[in-house]
Write a structure and sequence with these properties.
alpha/beta; Metallo-beta-lactamase, Chain A; Oxidized Rhodanese, domain 1; 3 domains; six-stranded mixed β-sheet; five-stranded mixed β-sheet
Length: about 450
């Protein structure tokens, strides 16, 4: 009997392979599915079932792809809008057996209407569940967001409260297996660990521990979450079934002269932020490889042709895989020419100045003419520690709101550390803004230097 966890970095997505007696099941598979088959085969099992805890918003489900690869049956929760076309709809009370291992279906709506949890039992040892796969209903340190049905906001928040009580009733001993960990857009306050139990969460998870239904609903109604545009694409693909990812995800290297053959493609720089600041190709968009899952869906169109700028083939491959997991497949290759060699060929390149905390502090105290500090953090971050005089405009919404900014002004972008600020600076530079700089260190450096925060953000 085994439970194997697979973590998808960037998305902080957690999926699982479970099995016993020669049969296995996969819970919430991602789009690149070969690893599940390999893992099951290594355990001497065939994949007979695929379970989805809910319709994912932040990644393409691999369930229909894995079913086509293995002949497994896919099981999904009831959806009032329309059923998932590639899955069998299962309801509470249904049970599935794999050797001595048993899964029991629980309906746990709230995050989505079709949310399910699966209680895990060991038939040889007691009647209480050993663990539970909770999807996005219950996380470690947090609970699921409930903002996908704005016209039913109070209702779905109440449904999640009821679902949490159902999970609580499974008992303190049950090990928690959520669908996401810290860093996911599906929650705000997840713990930076991936192990817990129902009992530990009951005592230490503030939202799970909240026993007053009205107070719980009120807190959920006052939360603020962002919804990237690509969520709509994920919703459609995860109702209809996405296509398999290409077997070979490694983008082909292109030489310095390759740009001539890729007119109209977006230059996507996936190197680290300091590399981009030091030297980058004119007109390129910076999204470091480890940030693609969070911001590609905001800043790129799924039909956009992409040519990567990467440090090496390994980085380009990792970037292409992250993009494929959220439905971005049009990567045409990567530039393998290092920027010094690029410049040595008398080719143009750009750079962006980085400001330290004391320089920014001087400017905040005595703002230069025509200069603004642009804070691109999320609203909850800004409310927690606003920087005096900074204007707030969330990074994900920046391309759609460029018209609110004055191209004649100089902007220094900031975030929590400087990473998102660099992405924002690249958006501004591509749009023709001059005098753009980055506050490297950003809010972290501001606080470490002991500078005061403002009463409220602008």
């Amino acid at each position: 009997m085994f439970v194997e966890k697979i973590k998808t970095e960037g998305l902080a997505h957690l999926s699982y392979v479970i099995g016993d007696g020669g049969e296995a099941a996969v819970v919430d598979p991602r789009r690149d599915c070969e690893l599940y088959v390999e893992l099951a085969h290594a355990r001497g099992c065939r994949i007979a079932h695929v379970f989805e805890t809910h319709r994912n918003e932040d990644l393409v489900s691999g369930a229909p792809i894995l079913a086509a690869m293995t002949g497994a049956e896919v099981h999904h929760g009831p959806n009032p809008e329309r059923p998932v076309v590639y899955a069998d709809t299962v309801r509470e009370g249904r049970r599935f057996t794999f050797g001595k291992l048993e899964l029991a279906v629980l309906e746990t709506p709230g995050h989505t209407d079709d949310s399910l949890s699966f209680a895990l039992y060991d038939a040889d040892f007691g009647s209480e569940p050993v663990g539970v796969f909770t999807g996005d209903a219950l996380f470690i340190g947090d609970v699921g967001r409930t903002d996908f049905y704005p016209d039913r906001a109070a209702e779905v928040a109440g449904l999640l409260f009821d679902s949490l009580r159902k999970l609580e009733a499974l008992g303190d001993q049950a090990i928690l297996y959520p669908a996401h960990g810290a860093g996911s857009v599906c929650g705000d306050a997840m713990a930076d660990r991936e192990f817990s139990t129902i009992g530990y969460e009951r005592r230490n998870n503030p939202m799970f521990a909240l026993q007053d239904r009205d107070a719980f609903v009120e807190k959920k109604l006052n939360e603020h979450h962002y919804q990237p545009p690509y969520f709509r694409l994920m919703e459609r693909l995860n109702m209809e079934g996405g296509e398999a990812v290409r077997r070979v995800l490694s983008p082909a290297p292109r030489g310095a002269g390759a740009l001539a053959g890729h007119e109209g493609a977006t230059l996507l720089d996936v190197r680290g932020v300091t590399a981009f600041l030091g030297a980058h190709l004119p007109g390129s968009l910076a999204i470091p490889a480890d940030m693609l899952s969070a911001f590609a869906g905001w800043l790129l169109d799924p039909e956009e042709r992409l040519l990567l700028v990467a440090d090496d083939g390994a980085q380009a491959t990792a970037a292409a895989r992250s993009l494929a997991q959220i439905g971005y497949d049009r990567v045409e290759g990567f530039l393998d020419t290092a920027l010094p060699a690029w410049a040595a060929g008398a080719r143009p390149f750009g750079a962006l100045p980085a400001l330290d905390v004391e320089e920014v502090a001087r400017r905040v105290a005595d703002p230069p003419e025509g200069w603004s500090l642009l804070d691109v953090r999320g609203v909850t971050e800004v409310e927690a520690s606003p920087i005096p005089g900074a204007r707030h405009l969330y990074l994900g919404e920046l391309p759609q709101r460029l018209g609110e900014l004055d191209p004649e002004r100089s902007y220094t972008t900031m975030c929590a550390s400087g990473a998102r600020a660099t992405v924002a600076a690249s958006v501004l530079a591509r749009a023709g803004f001059s005098g753009v700089s980055v506050f490297l260190g950003s809010a972290g450096a501001w606080q470490a230097a002991g500078h005061p925060t403002a009463d409220k953000a602008q």
